[in-house]
Design brief:
heterodimer, A: alpha/beta, Aspartate Aminotransferase, domain 2, 7-stranded mixed sheet, 12 helices, 15% strand, globular, B: alpha+beta, 6-stranded antiparallel sheet, 3-stranded antiparallel sheet, 4 helices, 33% strand
Chain lengths: 452, 128
């Protein structure tokens, strides 16, 4: 049976029944300037055999490479049980189920996921996940605009230290909605955003501030004082966080006196393999005050008519199948399967396991930066405290150095010259708990040869 | 059959307006509207001080099965909102025309009141 079972004849009959000339007539209300036009650069489809061949060829490009690359996606140990359990038939679905009577297992698992995320972030509520971290930030911005009714100007302060892809994605999603994203520059010495920099960008009416912790450079921002200043000036605070880092860093719900209002980010570090960029998942949590602005699905715990515990999708009146164009979000996809893996991952590691993994990442990165910085022609770009990433300045072109390292099967880091040309030749390096002392020493040895 | 008090004015979108005779009007949703919505669980009220234009979506009433906009029946400044609804939205189910009022407005053009339906017209409207 074909995936879309309508024949040409059926389509024609349906169009006649509603009095439309062709399918494009159904989309006439979309203004012409909003249409994307023809998609160029999307190749023709491939057969399964062709795609397998292509993927095998790509996979063999970096055999056995040792990864010191982060920049938003991180190589962590995933216990074998995680995906063994996740891919069981009972769980193997990408969707959050509507049918409570048939889906108690999946609904309970999602409920447990939400409970874990609220515990990690220190927030009141979590949804059942979003598409990814970048679109999660866009949703958080839209939430803030709806939720901060004291603000009229729809202006959001976004530091340059927020992940460049997150900023671009957010701009793309909010640009048609009369929302202004104002960039706040970082300090060149510290690689963090000072409160004064925020103050200089702030006018009379700012809807919200975004703070990424740790920031894209791996550095720790002054989240407490920025949060307090924002709240004193009627702004909401959006935290972009790496969920693993929350095992050792202060939860967004505890930032400043009153805590952040929304916490979002990418769930990849919690059980999703790198796998060439996805699928990952986005998470978003908020305070009780903003719960009705929350996009997407939320699973709630309730009792049935006999008083027995059960799980259901809740607060659905916000969602697009009921509220249509006025729904809290019209990107209603989530990542049920990756969230399933993530929930199992967190339950296997437990709070102490997450803390050990996070602490090992920090210790390995400190060791890596120390060893690499001893090389002539390599120096740390900033003097700030980091979590598990740091920026190094190189005396040779970053792209050439990374290519030379790749030939020795070392993925040496992320070239910052594209997004941050002002840093010159600089790379962002990361050493998770996966990197052994031997691998770190080997990287230092090879880099010394390459840069000499 | 739901109640339709004769002293009030009505809109097609099921808001009611009471002229308080002191230059202010009180606004709510009708008994018919609350019956259609079912048990109300949340009300998002407008901000005090906001200037409304007749027809603006200015308030949301959410029941277990739907979330609906409330449209401003008349232009003017919001003077007061019914704070009790924040914790007890079910007041609207019990008393749509009295305790369940939503907000009070100082009309900028009282002539707009004449555009609204009287009780007979509204009763005919919802009889269909």
């Amino acid at each position: 049976m074909p995936f879309i079972p309508h024949t040409e004849q059926e389509i024609t009959e349906m169009l006649q029944a509603i009095g439309a000339d062709d399918i494009s007539a159904l989309f006439e209300e979309i203004p012409a300037h909003l249409l994307a036009g023809e998609l160029t650069g999307v190749p023709e489809g491939m057969t399964e055999m062709e795609i397998s061949r292509l993927m095998h060829a790509r996979a063999s490009q970096h055999p056995q490479s040792v990864c010191f690359l982060g920049a938003g996606a991180y190589e962590h140990h995933i216990p074998a049980a995680v995906w063994e359990i996740t891919t069981r038939g009972e769980y193997y679905s990408a969707y959050t189920p509507y049918q409570a009577e048939a889906s108690q297992g999946t609904l309970q698992l999602t409920y447990e996921y939400q409970s874990m995320m609220t515990a990690l972030t220190g927030m009141d509520v979590s949804n059942a996940s979003l598409y990814d971290g970048a679109s999660g930030l866009a949703e958080a911005v839209l939430m803030a605009v709806r939720g901060n009714r004291k603000s009229k100007l729809r202006k959001i302060l976004v530091p340059t230290t927020v992940h460049p892809s997150y900023r671009k994605t957010t701009q793309t999603i909010v640009q048609g909605q009369n929302i202004e994203l104002c960039e706040v520059p970082y300090d060149e010495t510290t690689g963090v955003t000072s409160l004064d920099a925020f103050k200089q960008q702030a006018g009379d009416d700012i809807t919200a501030v975004v703070i990424q912790q740790p920031n894209f450079f791996g550095n720790l921002e002054s989240v407490d004082e920025i949060t307090d200043w924002a709240h004193e000036n009627n702004m909401l605070v959006i935290a972009v966080v790496n969920p693993l880092s929350l095992a050792v860093l202060k939860a967004p719900g505890d930032w400043g006196t009153t805590g952040a209002d929304i916490a979002c980010g990418d769930g990849q570090p919690l059980g999703a393999p790198l796998s060439a960029g996805g699928p990952y998942y986005g998470f978003i949590c908020c305070t009780q005050a903003l719960v009705r602005q929350m996009p997407g699905r939320i699973v709630g715990r309730t009792v049935d008519q006999d008083g027995k515990e059960g799980f259901v999708l809740t607060l659905q009146a916000r969602e697009q199948h009921i509220r249509r164009s006025k729904a809290t979000s019209n990107i209603c996809t989530n990542q049920g399967l990756v969230v399933t893996a993530s929930t199992i991952h967190m339950s296997i590691l437990g709070a102490s396991g997450l803390e050990k993994a996070a602490a090992a990442c920090h210790a390995n990165t400190i060791s890596l930066v120390k060893q690499l910085s001893q090389i002539d022609g390599v120096e740390p770009a900033f003097n700030s405290t980091c979590f598990h990433e740091a920026v190094l300045k190189l005396k040779k072109p970053a792209s050439e150095v990374l290519l030379a390292l790749a030939e020795k099967n070392i993925l040496g880091g992320y070239d910052l010259s594209g997004s941050y040309p002002e840093l010159g030749d600089a790379i962002l390096v990361c050493a998770t708990e996966m990197r052994s002392d031997e691998e770190i020493s080997a990287y230092a040895k090879v880099l010394a040869e390459v840069i000499a | 059959m739901s109640e339709v008090p004769s002293e009030l004015k009505y809109t097609k979108s099921h808001e009611w307006v009471r002229d308080e005779g002191d230059g202010t009007v009180t606004i709510g949703i009708t008994d018919h509207a609350q019956e259609l919505l079912g048990d109300l669980v949340f009300v998002e009220l407008p901000e005090v001080g906001v200037d409304l234009t007749a027809g603006d979506a200015c308030c949301v009433v959410e029941s277990v099965k739907a979330a609906s906009d409330v449209y401003a029946p008349i232009s003017g400044e919001v003077l007061e909102v019914n704070e009790l609804l924040t914790d007890s939205p079910e007041i609207i189910n019990d008393s749509a025309f009295d305790d369940g009022w939503l907000f009070k407005v100082q009309p900028s053009a009282e002539v707009e009141l004449d555009d609204l339906m009287d009780a007979d017209a509204y009763e005919a409207e919802i009889a269909d």
